[in-house]
Amino acid sequence: MANSVENVLLSTGNNMPILGFGTWQAKDDELESALDAALEAGYRHIDTAYVYENEKVIGRVLKKWLSSKKIKREDLFIVTKVPPSGNYPDGVRKYIKKSLENLQLDYLDLYLVHVPFQFRDVEGDLHPMTSDGRIDAVMDTDHIAIWKAMEEQFKNGLTRSIGISNFNVKQIQRILDNSEIKPSNLQIELHAYMQQNELVDFCKKNNIVVTAYSPLGAPGLGKFLAQFGQTIEIPDILGNPTVTDLAKKHNKTNAQILLRYTIQKGIVVIPKSTNPKRIKENFDVFDFQLDDGDMKKMKALDKGNDARILNFSGAFPGIDSHPEFPY
């Protein structure tokens, strides 16, 4: 079943499955059983990050599957990310080692710089705050120095590809202009209401594969922001009438239509679910095609950057004054 997933070719020559399993906001026993269900369904691309604080759980599940010979390491595509507090050269070196240890792996398939801004690196506190309730940010973040450290991890064989996440065109261009090994992937918020066409086109021209996080519109984001005392209205992309009509036409779920649309544009998707039925449904998107008319209807749902759901300033007060705040 795993063979039915299409791959996209990264600039480093590695194949990346176009459908991955997102793990943000999933932890402990719930994640363990969800990841088992995902691997059973055929997912082989697993997306995590140091700040999700779930790498150890993922590592345990992967070890179990690898030890039982159910899967081989080369069948997997594992992605994790440098935390904001690791956005300095020694931080990159420190956190890739921690992530590999947590995941019980010798190498990653893709290592990303999670965000373009930087928090102070405080042991045991991934989101340090100042006494006046702002995020404790480091203002002189040096992307070129960070990227040189990322290239070093690639050369040392600790990761097979390197990339970035939540960066804008100007920030990506700076890295392209000052790099030996180009970023092979950009992970960004992307869904039917915010299709990021300009950024996607820029990446295509520069041979950077795009990964869409929150491809279903981040229904769980409210829970995340609540821990920072924020409330937000999440748009109901899944319930959009156009999506519902296409789901009926193709005898598919609304989520399958949203995923299929993005996949058909050559964009990687990493939907997150801990529900075994939905995990399986989200994987089942390779046995149908949206026609040109369907694609046109879906394209018309784009509301531009105003539809951004996660802009970081709600979760990290004061981060929008950072010189490298991307939006």
Largest beta sheet: what is the strand line-up?
3-4-5-6-7-8-9-10
Number of helices: 11
Topology order in helix (H) and strand (E) letters: EEEHEHEHEHEHEHEHHHEHH
- Helicity range of the residues? 25-40%
Poorly predicted parts: none
Helix- and strand-based class? Answer: alpha/beta
Instruction: Tell the overall outline.
Output: globular
Query: What's the count of strands?
Result: 10
Computed Rg: 19 Å
Strand content: 5-15%
Q: What is the averaged pLDDT score?
A: 95
Major sheet details = 8 strands, parallel
Q: How far from one another are the termini?
A: 40 Å
Topology:
Elements: E1 7-9, E2 15-17, E3 21-22, H1 28-41, E4 45-47, H2 55-67, E5 77-82, H3 89-103, E6 110-113, H4 143-155, E7 162-165, H5 169-177, E8 185-189, H6 197-205, E9 209-213, H7 221-226, H8 241-250, H9 254-264, E10 268-269, H10 276-283, H11 292-299
Parallel strand pairs: 3-4, 4-5, 5-6, 6-7, 7-8, 8-9, 9-10
Antiparallel strand pairs: 1-2
